[in-house]
Structure formats: C-alpha cells, structure tokens
C-alpha cells in the first residue's frame, strides 16, 4: 500500500544553520541515544517531502534504522573495507557463534570483510559519512538522503533505498571502527582509496579540525561524526546496463553507457516497440554487451530498463552525480499477469529456482540505485549534464515529467518544496542553488524536446508488460 504525505511530522528537530559547508542542520523526527562516553547521538528521519509518495515499507525501514542502538550487546560494528569509500556495517549478533560477544565479533569476524555477514544473524544497516580528502573516493552524506526523498517525489521507481541521518560519538567511532579500518584495509591492489579514507577518518576523529570543511563530517559541537544509515540490496549489472566502460572513467564511460540497448532505445525517435528492437539490434553489435545481455532479451525487460535509465539520468542531472556508471544494481523477479494485474516474486539470482515460475512469467531484472553518495556537492563533475543525456532522450515517463515541472515551478517561486530542500538536508547556499539551477535546466531541456514534438510520454513498463504496446500519454509541455 502507498499513500501520500504532504505535511511535516509532529516531532521535529532543527538546529540553526552553519555559516558554510553542509551541516547537521537537518529537519525531521529525532531519536536520541547515549554513547558509553556520555555523548548524545541522534537518528533523524528527514521530514517527508511535500507531495511525495512513500510506501509503508519505506516508513517502516526508516523506523527500524532509528531503533538501532549502536552499543547494544546484540549489535556489532565493522569497518567497510571493500570498494572505494570507507563506511561502517552494523550487524545483528543476537544469535550465532558470536551471540553476546560483541568484542569477539569485532576482533575476529570483521577482518573477513564481506564474509563477516556469515556468522552474523543479519546486516542491519550501513553507515556512510562524507569523505572528500585527497586520495579518497568522493562521498557526501546528504546525497543518499536527497536521492531517497526526490525519487519518491518524482515517482521514479528505480529502487532508491530509504535512508536516515545518524550521528555517532567520534571517539567511539575511532576506537571501534576507524582504527580497525586502517588495520584491515589496503591489502589489495584496488583498495587504495578505501585505505586513504580510513586513514583520514582516524586523523579527523582524533582532531576534527584536520578535515575541511569540518562541518561536512562532524556535528556542530564536534562530539560526533555524522552520516547516513541505509542498506544496499542487489547485484551489480554488467555491460547490458552499466555499459562497457571501455573508454575509461569520466565522460568516456558515460558515453559508453549511452550505447547500451535501453539507452539507444531511449534515444530513438521511433515508436516504442520499434525503438526497443532498434536499440537491441545496435547494442548487440558490441561483443561484450552481446555476451552480458544475450540475444533473447525480452522486450518487456528493455522497457523497464528504459524507464529506469530515464529516471536515473534525471536524478543524476539534478544532483550532479559524478560516479553512476558501473554502480547500478538489480534484483531479479518473476513477473506475470494474473487477473489483469501484474504480479511478481523474487527469482533466484544464481542457480536453480526453489520452485517453478508461474506459467507465462518473464524474468525481469528490477533496478536498484544504491550507490548515491557522490552527488550534491558543487565540486563534483555532472556527467549526465556534460554528456548531454537528457538532450538525447525521446521517450519519458509521463508522471515523472509532470512532477519535474511541478518541482521546477515551486523552486522558481521559492515555494513549499524549495523551503523543504533548503531546511531539511543541511545543505549550504551553493549546494541548494546548484540543485535549483539543475532542476530548471533539466525542465528546460525536456520541455524544449517536448515543444519540438520529439518527446513521447510512453514509458509505462507495466502497461507494456500487459499489452505489449503503450498508447502515449498526452501532456502539454507544462506537464498537464
């Protein structure tokens, strides 16, 4: 069940804004915890975005995250020592070989990296702080929060995970996580940025003034480091969606991304079904894409991917995301029509199915946009903009287009939505201004394509799955 939330929660948390940089000036329902050192920690469920649609599961997940006591006997903390950015994994050890032995888990299991989840009951969440020091991978903690709430406003169904704001006693972070991060990381050829991130966190936890801007990483009283709590389900796409990446990081791989079957179909001025066929035919000329996607990809799958990529390009454009390509995930589902309704259930990611799929079901990979932490800083490179992704799109979801126009109109008049973004995420004036300007430019680009009668509002994957065709939605270029 989904429902619309248009008013602020009754329990609110607000601190006066900092002079520069992002800050702990966030607005929402607050839960407090006390660290063993006597530091007050906060978990804040950002106030719902006016006009956004949140699922029951979204709100339940937010509540679950803000119920986690980082120092409970049933909880253990490990440094995330894989991939490029440092973070902290929060594990449930209420059962298993380390039940009641937090110190033992952190001493022995954490060194196994991703393997630490095996002796744990569950992974509860991942904590990601900002980290933009020299030699590290760019991460900015407000970015996942922005993606979560904006995706719900724009009704962009691309699996953006719920996220909440969380602070943690910096001395506890240093002693339990950061020092272990330095000790465990850096032992593979590809882990240099992760190791550098942990080194900087140790230095900053010891002395916050060594990190600039200090307010990007620490609360105003310098007692705690802050970031986001979230989980990142799914498996990584290969070149069928992430592109071949053969042209290297930056503009090169972002241009490669636009040579995938779904993006080529998005770029086609042909009717939807013909655009799908043309996109697949062209993409299959690349041997890597042919190997990863296969010859018999379902048209329904391509239409789902087209809608996903249209929404990804829009969100990444608005937030100046610099690290999208290669970081798009999926979860497989069996999808079928029953009683004129779309039904689905999770499919096996690898190996045989536990039970046979329903008659007529098609295996569809549903996209998860998990890695959203390299957006919203003015300093980041906006590759969706510089490679003109939006200018090339010829098919678009009608509901997302209308919501974009609504958002841009509100920003232009500094209305309710503008006030929400200004007050809710701890952004500085330059970061807010960039989001407003990028939204205006995105609306201008797509409305210009619409005015030339080159933009068709036919990206309705559910309707296509049911009928194998879509009658385009009729909108004027203002979104009505």
**Mean of pLDDT:** 94
Could you estimate the helical fraction of the residues in percent?
25-40%
Strand order of the largest sheet: 2-3-8-9-7-6-5
Care to count the β-strands? 13
Order of helices and strands: EEEEHEEHEHEHHEEHHHHHHEEEHHHHHH
Largest sheet: 7 strands, antiparallel
Count of alpha/pi helices: 17
> Strand pairing plus helix content: what structural class?
alpha+beta
Rg, Cα atoms, Å = 22 Å
Indicate the overall shape: globular
What do these coordinates show?
Helices cover 38% and strands 17% of the residues. Helix 4 packs antiparallel against helix 5 (192-206) and helix 8 (261-267) crosses helix 9. The two termini are 26 Å apart. The longest helix is centred in the last third of the chain and has 23 residues, at 429-451. The protein contains 17 helices and 13 strands. It has helices at 56-65, 102-109, 142-153, 170-184, 192-206, 239-242, 251-257, 261-267, 272-283, 287-293, 299-319, 383-386, 389-392, 398-412, 416-424, 429-451, 461-467; strands at 2-5, 28-34, 40-46, 52-55, 75-80, 87-92, 122-129, 164-169, 224-230, 235-236, 329-338, 341-346, 362-368. It is globular, with a radius of gyration of 22 Å. It is of the alpha+beta class. It folds into 2 domains: 2-230, no CATH class; 236-467.
Condensed summary:
This protein is α+β, with helices and mostly antiparallel strands and 480 residues long. It has helices at residues 56-65, 102-109, 142-153, 170-184, 192-206, 239-242, 251-257, 261-267, 272-283, 287-293, 299-319, 383-386, 389-392, 398-412, 416-424, 429-451, 461-467; strands at 2-5, 28-34, 40-46, 52-55, 75-80, 87-92, 122-129, 164-169, 224-230, 235-236, 329-338, 341-346, 362-368.
């Amino acid at each position: 069940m989904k429902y619309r939330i248009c008013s602020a929660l009754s329990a609110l948390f607000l601190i006066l804004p900092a002079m520069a940089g992002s800050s702990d000036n966030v607005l929402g329902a607050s839960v407090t915890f006390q660290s063993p050192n006597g530091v007050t920690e906060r978990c804040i469920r950002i106030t719902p975005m006016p006009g956004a649609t949140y699922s029951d599961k979204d709100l339940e997940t937010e509540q679950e995250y803000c119920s986690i006591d980082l120092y409970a006997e049933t909880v253990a903390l490990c440094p995330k020592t894989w991939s490029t950015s440092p973070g902290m994994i929060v594990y449930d050890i209420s059962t298993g070989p380390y039940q009641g032995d937090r110190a033992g888990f952190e001493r022995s299991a954490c060194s196994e990296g991703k393997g630490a989840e095996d002796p744990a009951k569950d992974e509860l969440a991942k904590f990601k702080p900002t980290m933009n020091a020299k030699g590290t991978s760019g991460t900015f903690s407000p970015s996942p929060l922005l993606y979560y709430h904006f995706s719900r406003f724009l009704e962009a169904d691309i699996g953006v995970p719920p996220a909440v704001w969380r602070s943690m006693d910096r001395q506890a972070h240093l002693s339990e996580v950061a020092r272990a991060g330095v000790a465990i990381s850096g032992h593979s050829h590809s882990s240099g940025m992760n190791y550098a991130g942990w080194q900087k966190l140790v230095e900053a936890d010891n002395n916050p003034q060594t990190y600039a801007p200090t307010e990007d990483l620490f609360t105003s009283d310098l007692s705690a480091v802050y970031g986001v709590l979230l989980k990142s389900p799914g498996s990584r796409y290969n070149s069928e969606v992430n592109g071949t990446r053969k042209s290297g990081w930056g503009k090169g791989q972002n241009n490669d991304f636009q040579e995938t079957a779904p993006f080529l179909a998005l770029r086609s001025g042909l009717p939807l079904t013909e655009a799908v066929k043309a996109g697949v035919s062209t993409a299959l000329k690349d041997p890597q894409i042919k190997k990863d996607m296969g010859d018999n990809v379902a048209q329904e799958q391509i239409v789902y991917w087209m809608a996903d990529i249209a929404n990804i390009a829009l969100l990444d454009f608005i937030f100046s995301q610099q690290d999208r390509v290669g970081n798009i995930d999926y979860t497989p589902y069996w999808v079928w029509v029953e009683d004129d309704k779309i039904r689905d259930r999770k499919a096996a990611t690898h190996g045989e199915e536990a039970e046979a799929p329903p008659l007529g079901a098609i295996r569809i990979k549903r996209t998860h946009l998990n890695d959203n932490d390299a957006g919203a800083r003015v300093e980041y490179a906006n590759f969706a903009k510089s490679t003109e992704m939006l200018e090339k799109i010829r098919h678009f979801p009608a509901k997302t287009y209308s919501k974009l126009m609504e958002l841009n109109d509100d920003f232009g008049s500094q209305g309710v939505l503008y006030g929400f973004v200004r007050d809710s995420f701890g952004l500085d004036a330059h970061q807010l201004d960039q989001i407003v300007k990028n939204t205006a430019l995105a609306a201008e680009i797509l409305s210009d394509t619409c005015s030339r009668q080159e933009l068709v509002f036919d990206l309705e994957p559910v309707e296509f799955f049911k009928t194998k065709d879509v009658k385009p939605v009729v909108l004027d270029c203002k979104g009505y």
